[in-house]
Amino acid sequence: MGDLKPPRFVLRIVAAFSRHGEALEWGKSQLVSQWGPLALESPHFDLVETNYYDDEMGSGLKKCFWAFEELADSSTLADWKHSSNALEVECQQLSRWPESRPLNLDPGYITEAKLVLATTKDRSHRIYLRDGIFAEITLQYYQKRWTGAAWTYPDYQRADFQAFFDECRGYLRQQLRQNPA
């Protein structure tokens, strides 16, 4: 039998997308007020791999990532997803944008070995956490690079996304060295 040990803290991230820069800024400010300052922020990437969201969010979507300064306990991932879902509803209720869903917020985390995302959708490769929330290992860090699986969304396999995840992983490793507890 193995020894039980608490897991190391993780780098909390959010994937955010919208066609409205103001909606992205609103979402970022709301999350910063809840989870603290950002450590890293990606550029706004064109989301061209899918038109899945066009009906409810419009076309010309921009996607960005925010990584939060304070490391977090991964066991609270379901709480993060509920918080981000509530913010999406609040953004919608502001009625500042014409779309039925002006902002999408997908929380997750990065460890030294993987990128995990929270979702409300069950699939064969997702593990149920609690309260309607599932977790998916979207990428693994293997042989000094990010690698996807059969289910990994095409945009997460982009070199520019993965370059940002490399920065995040570097930040996490630095924080873990400074605070190894």
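the 2nd protein, sequnce then structure:
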Amino acid sequence: MSLAQRRTLLEFVDPSLEQSVTNGLDMVERRLYEVVDTGDEFLTEASSHLFKAGGKRFRPMLVFTAAHFGDPAAEGIAESALVIELTHLATLYHDDVMDEAAMRRGAPSANSRWGNAIAILAGDYLFAIASELVADLGADVVRTQARTFARLVHGQISETVGAPEDADQIQWYLHVLAEKTGSLIATAARLGAQLAKAPSEVVEALAEFGEIIGVAYQLSDDLLDIASDGDTSGKTQGTDLMEGIPTLPVLFARTSDDTSERLRELLSGPVAEEDLAETLRLLRESSAMDRAREVLDTYCNDAKTIALGLPECPARDALLGICDYMVARSS
């Protein structure tokens, strides 16, 4: 991913911070290919499949940014960023199998190309590499990574099983996002600051920021799936709708008294391609979108409040910019 594309996510106002984070990301990009190159051509191709499809590298970007609240040159920061990204990529292989997804980042998913067994094993291989790398970072980091992985799995199970009948559907969904998405982004911020030897209260605040902004990131994606025009966002319209994924606007539409019967019918399962345009139009006109945006605004404001409590520095300004970006990208 180019620097210009990265800057749409994390706005840098300080040249030295920008250069430091960019150098770190370039290092992660190189190391991703190095650690999966075992000499087995097929395994290397399968396990690097998602690297080649690109990505914002948001999690390692957050590691390197959080490190600027301490010593950004401290040992272990770059390796922790690599561990975080490998873990994230591994979960994508497994997610695509769970969701039976045909595409990932504009390219055929690993499961559609090689089958579910290879996709699962490729994900397992990336988890194994991440585990080997994290072992060199000390027992505390290993423990943090293990707890994060447990939360990721818990979130996936919760999503797969679904909410109990008596549960609040909205709160359950937000809980799943915190487990599946927020937990790893929280760990990215935590490890960057912790390994940089930032004060403990700063480490905890950054971890809290990461979890909240991680949920906001997914909520922003939920809105983008519906509000995007498809040409400027880079995201295909209605992907979640056609896959039957109950995102926040859909959950609000299903539970709102003012939702039309036609929209309820369309949202009762995966939306057929021939019904997509109508579904998108009705959703955009519904109160569900406004309610979902209000939830996103709340998360972004909460994250911004935490960031404002951090020591004043260019890294803090960059975190504040992330909050604004999350709102702006789905408007």
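The chain has one domain: 3-328. The longest helix spans residues 200-227.
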